[in-house]
């Protein structure tokens, strides 16, 4: 059985104390590999390597760093099939989705930040005839990047690429649930000729190696994507050490459907927003609010579309694969039970699915739509992070905005209307870091990405990410 290795100081190495975790294919329920269960000694070795590499990487001209990153992007493209198969096997997602979304985006992340760093500039502030200020933006040094399991290589590279581009050395930890593509990336970094120690990838448990990265005195900033509770724990540990923090956390995102929408496009868009990647995207629209006058028709059209989703073996031609783990499937099924107990009416789904053949032991849940629940209930307040969405009618624009804003989260909202004024008016009043109008997950990597309220602190993307991964220093030159 294949055992993955850590990537430390430019080499692939087993964990220091020889401990491993099982890697499970969620579509079959079978163990198919071993993952290093890294500990403090592995981290110390990685931080030492990163500290040694630091001066050289920082002094490497941005164009050369960019060229190396472009080489990594080319290698990701060249290995698309290998990486897509690994992502699907680790995560349970349809291989077609990994091929069309996850892996191309990982290459784009490297390419985007390779270009961005060559265009990055810092500010200057003139004080008339008295003085001039200019701001230096140097790399922070050694930084930590910790990512989740839902879009494994996509989100792992979304953090690593800007950190490296800005001249930092990185200690990165992928989710222990989906480590394989990060391991393959370490092989590609070696092939690309990335200098030793610039990027170090450690595998293992969040509560062990993840926590050790957060608390290590040599790691000066943490970029984290994951659950809100984990984010709070990381913030509590990092704050007294005055580490710079970027937190991308959970969501409970609304889709607002107005009677003046383009119904065909809206049904398709809202269904995709709710169920893409088995509903396991922090941006998924899991609360669907529909203007009452079109509620019956929209509900029927949406139900038709959702019940037609093909769920099954991620290697075959399906719309939905498996959920990421047995534990996560248990949580999602538990949330559906809670919805039932709260008086929700299950319109479709609501149960585990057992496909025939090799996936009979896999972790599949039927796409589920629920109606009849108030805003103030657990189902509409807690992130479920699975193929489960609720439907509610609304009467006025004001009501819709109030319901949309009525949770502790504030990551992403989508608004579906053909009325231009309404789209601007509603977007302005929504308390979310991202508002999509007549689209969902339409990504421009230059834009600020992240959430308000319990959905996080800080923004990723474009210059925001490069600013996060640099330390500004203002120099004031007096003319006299
Ligand atoms: N806002 C976003 O951009 C975004 C993107 C994807 C996922 N998410 C959120 O992530 C969650 C699902 O992902 P998950 O279950 O992997 O999240 P998680 O918080 O359990 O784990 C995320 C990562 O953090 C590590 N980790 C866990 N405990 C840690 C600790 N104490 N210290 C340091 N690291 C630790 C894990 O090993 C993993 O690598 C959902 O809530 C989802 O909304 C948010
Ligand atoms: O599950 C969360 C998805 C995050 C997506 C991004 O960070 C992105 O598209 O850049």
From TrEMBL:
Catalytic residues at 248
Which Pfam families does this entry report, sorted A to Z? Aldedh (PF00171)
Keyword Chloroplast on this protein? no
**Which segments does the entry list as coiled coil?**
none
Keywords from the named record: NAD, Oxidoreductase
GO molecular function: any one?
Answer: aldehyde dehydrogenase [NAD(P)+] activity
Domain Aldehyde dehydrogenase intervals? 19-475
Concerning its family, UniProt says: Belongs to the aldehyde dehydrogenase family.
By what name is this protein known? Aminomuconate-semialdehyde/2-hydroxymuconate-6-semialdehyde dehydrogenase
């Amino acid at each position: 059985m294949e055992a993955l290795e850590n990537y430390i100081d430019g080499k692939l190495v087993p964990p220091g104390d020889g401990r491993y975790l099982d890697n499970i294919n969620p579509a079959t329920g079978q163990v198919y590999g071993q993952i290093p269960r890294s500990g403090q000694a592995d981290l110390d070795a990685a931080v030492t390597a990163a500290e040694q590499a630091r001066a050289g990487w920082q002094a490497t001209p941005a164009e050369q760093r960019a060229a190396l990153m472009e080489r990594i992007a080319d290698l990701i493209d060249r290995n698309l099939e290998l990486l897509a198969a690994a992502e699907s096997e680790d995560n349970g997602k349809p291989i077609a989705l990994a091929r069309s979304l996850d892996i191309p985006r990982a290459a784009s992340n490297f390419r985007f930040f390779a270009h961005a760093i060559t265009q990055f500039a810092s500010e200057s502030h003139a004080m008339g005839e008295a003085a001039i200020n200019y701001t230096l933006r140097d790399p922070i040094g050694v930084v930590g990047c910790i990512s989740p399991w839902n879009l494994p290589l996509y989100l792992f590279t979304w953090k690593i690429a800007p950190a490296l581009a800005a001249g930092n050395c990185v200690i990165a930890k992928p989710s222990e649930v989906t480590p394989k593509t990060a391991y393959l990336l370490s092989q590609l970094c070696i092939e690309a000729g990335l200098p030793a120690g610039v990027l170090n990838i450690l595998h293992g448990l969040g509560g062990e190696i993840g926590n050790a990265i957060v608390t290590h005195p040599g790691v000066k900033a943490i970029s984290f994507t994951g659950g809100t509770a984990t984010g709070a724990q990381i913030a509590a540990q990092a704050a007294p050490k005055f580490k710079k923090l970027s937190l991308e956390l959970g969501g409970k995102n609304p889709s607002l459907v107005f009677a003046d929408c383009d119904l065909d496009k809206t049904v398709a868009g809202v269904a995709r927003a709710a169920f893409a990647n088995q509903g396991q995207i922090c941006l998924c629209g899991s609360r669907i609010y529909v203007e009452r006058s079109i509620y019956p028709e929209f509900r029927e059209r949406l139900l038709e579309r959702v019940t037609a989703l093909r769920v099954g073996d991620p290697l075959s031609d399906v719309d939905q694969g498996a959920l990421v783990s047995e534990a996560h499937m248990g949580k999602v099924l538990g949330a559906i039970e809670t919805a039932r107990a709260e008086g929700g009416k299950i319109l479709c789904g609501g149960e585990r699915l057992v496909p025939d053949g090799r996936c009979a032991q896999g972790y599949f849940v039927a796409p589920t739509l629920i109606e009849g629940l108030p805003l103030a209930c657990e189902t509409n307040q807690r992130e479920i992070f699975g193929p489960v969405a609720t439907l509610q009618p609304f009467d006025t624009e004001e009501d819709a905005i109030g319901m949309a804003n009525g949770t502790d989260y504030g990551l992403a909202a989508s608004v579906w209307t053909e009325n231009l004024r309404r789209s601007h008016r509603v977007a302005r009043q929504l308390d979310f870091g991202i508002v999509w109008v007549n689209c969902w997950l339409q990504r421009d990597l230059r834009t600020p990405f992240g959430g308000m309220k319990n959905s996080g602190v800080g923004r990723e993307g474009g210059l925001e990410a490069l600013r996060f991964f640099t330390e500004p220093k203002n120099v004031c030159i007096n003319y006299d």
